[in-house]
Specification:
Elements (H helix, E strand, L loop, with lengths): L4 H8 L8 H7 L4 H26 L2 H8 L5 E7 L8 E7 L17 H14 L2 E7 L1 H7 L1 H14 L7 E5 L9 E4 L7 H24 L5 H4 L5 H10 L10 H4 L4
Parallel strand pairs: 1-4, 4-5
Antiparallel strand pairs: 1-2, 2-3
Helix pairs in contact: 1-3, 5-8, 6-7
Length: 255
């Protein structure tokens, strides 16, 4: 084997099969650098195989609807039930069965970098994305549970075309469409996982914008959750326009 390490690295990027003859040549190469590249390739292939297997496992709910004749299945999730400030944001995503997005998972389990990468892939490959936003004043009026349901229904209505069935994370909405609620759905359904990622990215971005307007509460870092910085800001400055006044820590500082 006379190939340079650079050439080997480039060739390995193109190999997807373990029985490729080039791999046997590399295994016989005594150079430490070659064996390191080979080990990296094997780990990458194993990781990709695991992602494919997990994706197929998380397709079980979508597959059941496909087998019933449904073509456009929307996964729906919301973000922002627990914060003391800001809206609740829901997303509905219709994934393409022809363009799998490997690595989808509950947004809370993903690193910021990985979530951003998947957010871009969802935007590029999903058949449809709808967003629903319910503001703090409405949350105070109807309670956070009902506000979350409202946001989910809005997200479905904002899709570019009507879905034929819905998959939701642990709740149902007022829709005549066939729907299934799945406990921990954002970790068990690819469509709901995609929705959780988009909702999380959009809400975090929105809270960073609010931080520019209301800089005393650390919204750019805590997304409205009750961190120490946030609670100290509440105590010193009182609530701002996007605080949820019915939530206990906020209600406690209202004079």
């Amino acid at each position: 084997m006379s190939d340079s390490l650079k050439t080997i690295k480039e060739r390995l990027l193109l190999i997807q099969e373990e029985n490729d003859p080039y791999l046997e040549l590399l295994r016989q190469d005594s150079r430490v650098g070659v064996q390191k590249l080979l080990s990296q390739w094997e780990k990458r292939l194993a990781k990709e195989a695991a992602q494919v297997a997990k994706y197929q496992e998380m397709m079980v709910f979508e597959q059941a609807f496909y087998e019933q004749g449904h073509r456009f299945i929307a996964g729906i999730d919301e973000v922002g039930r627990g914060p003391l400030a800001g809206p609740v944001v829901a997303c509905a995503v219709i994934l393409s069965p022809d363009h799998p997005i490997y690595g989808l998972d509950d947004s809370k389990k993903l690193s910021t970098k990985r979530r951003g990468e998947l957010f871009t892939q969802i935007q590029e490959n999903a058949l449809g994305i709808g967003i629903g936003v319910v503001e703090p004043s409405e949350i105070d009026r109807v309670n956070i549970y009902q506000a979350s349901r409202q946001a989910m229904l809005l997200a479905v209505e904002e899709l570019p075309f009507p879905p034929s069935a819905l998959l939701l994370d642990a709740m149902t909405i007022d829709s005549p469409l066939p729907q299934e609620k799945i406990i921990k759905g954002d970790a068990r359904s690819v469509s709901i996982a995609a929705a959780s990622i988009v909702a999380k990215e959009l809400r975090d971005s929105l809270m960073k914008e609010y931080h520019e307007q209301y800089p005393h509460y650390g919204f750019d870092k805590n997304a409205g959750y009750g961190t120490k910085v946030h609670l100290e800001g509440l105590e010193k400055y009182g609530p701002c326009d996007i605080h949820r006044r019915t939530f206990a820590p906020v209600a406690a500082v209202i004079k």
